[in-house]
Design brief:
The protein is an alpha/beta fold. Helices cover 37% and strands 24% of the residues. The chain has a domain of 193 residues: P-loop containing nucleotide triphosphate hydrolases (Rossmann fold), CATH 3.40.50. The protein contains 12 helices and 11 strands. A hairpin with a 2-residue loop joins strand 5 and strand 6.
Length: 278
């Protein structure tokens, strides 16, 4: 049996708030296999983004990860790593694609400068070599005229181009795993499809594993090998995609599947132009 690339056990996350302690994630456990796409789906507030951020300890200062929680990646216990070791995992071995590229990218640095910074933070290369690598990455993610785009600032790119640039940053050090947290939320439908197709293509070409966070079952249907359904901070169902769509077990999963938009054919009378009886 293939050993998991990522193993999460009994992950719990709480937040200290003025109203008291809020439990956002409650006893979540799952594995990600090498080369696999695992989708984590659920409505806003279900805990999926907090789960994703906690895997790299990117939570706010008022968050606490439970003492019993375990997150192991490639034999490393991420929750016990010191700051230097954690920095090597972040961006080096695990890439992260955030929801909104406009707030995730630095507005006062060019796309090239941000890519070069990310590359040199993890690899002992010259600035010139890092810039060449940055241009190659922009070409890899489908940006036209990549050498020129290195000189652009985030506000000079469209939303889809900014998301491609974020994906390039996530890939800068050939990670074994990429976590994409609702990567199409801020994009229109046409661009959403292009970004999802890009992620699927890159996963296959680079042999990486992917965790795709989404609230849309329709989005993940054609991409995920397995789907974890989150509700109230817990995973209520975890199954291969085909199994989950064919025979959902949890009422919440059934509700999510029922909410997928469907096109129903017009009635016979409508297609023939007949007027129904009064």
């Amino acid at each position: 049996m293939t050993e998991p690339l990522l193993s999460v056990r009994d992950l719990s996350v709480t937040f200290d708030t003025p109203a008291g302690v809020a439990r956002a994630v409650d006893g979540v456990s799952f594995d990600v296999l090498p080369g696999e796409t695992l989708a984590v789906v659920g409505e806003s507030g279900s805990g999926k983004s907090v789960t994703a951020l906690s895997l790299l300890r990117l939570l706010d200062a008022n968050a606490t990860i439970g003492a019993q929680s375990r997150v192991e990646f490639g034999g490393k216990d991420i929750l016990s790593l010191n700051d230097e070791a954690l920095r090597q995992v972040r961006g080096g071995e695990i890439g992260f694609v955030f929801q909104d590229p406009m707030t995730s990218l630095n507005p006062v640095l060019t796309i090239g400068a941000q890519l070069v910074e990310a590359i040199r933070a993890h690899q002992p290369v010259t600035k010139s070599a890092a810039r060449d690598r940055a241009a190659d990455l922009l070409e890899l993610v489908g940006l036209p005229e990549p050498a020129r785009k290195l000189k652009d600032y985030p506000h000079q790119l469209s939303g889809g181009m900014r998301q491609r640039a974020l994906i390039a940053i996530a890939l800068c050090c050939n990670p074994k795993l990429v976590i994409a947290d609702e990567p199409t939320t801020a994009l229109d439908v046409t661009i959403q499809a292009q970004i999802l197709e890009l992620l699927q293509d890159l996963k296959q070409r680079l042999g990486m594993a992917l965790i795709l966070i989404s609230h849309d079952m329709g989005v993940v249907a054609g991409m995920a090998d397995r789907i974890a359904v989150m509700y109230g901070g817990q995973i209520v169902e975890l199954a291969p995609t085909k199994t989950l769509f064919a025979k959902p077990l949890h009422p919440y999963t059934i509700g999510l599947l029922a909410a997928i938009p469907r096109i129903t054919p017009p009635s016979r009378s409508a297609t023939m132009g007949t007027v129904p009886p009064q």
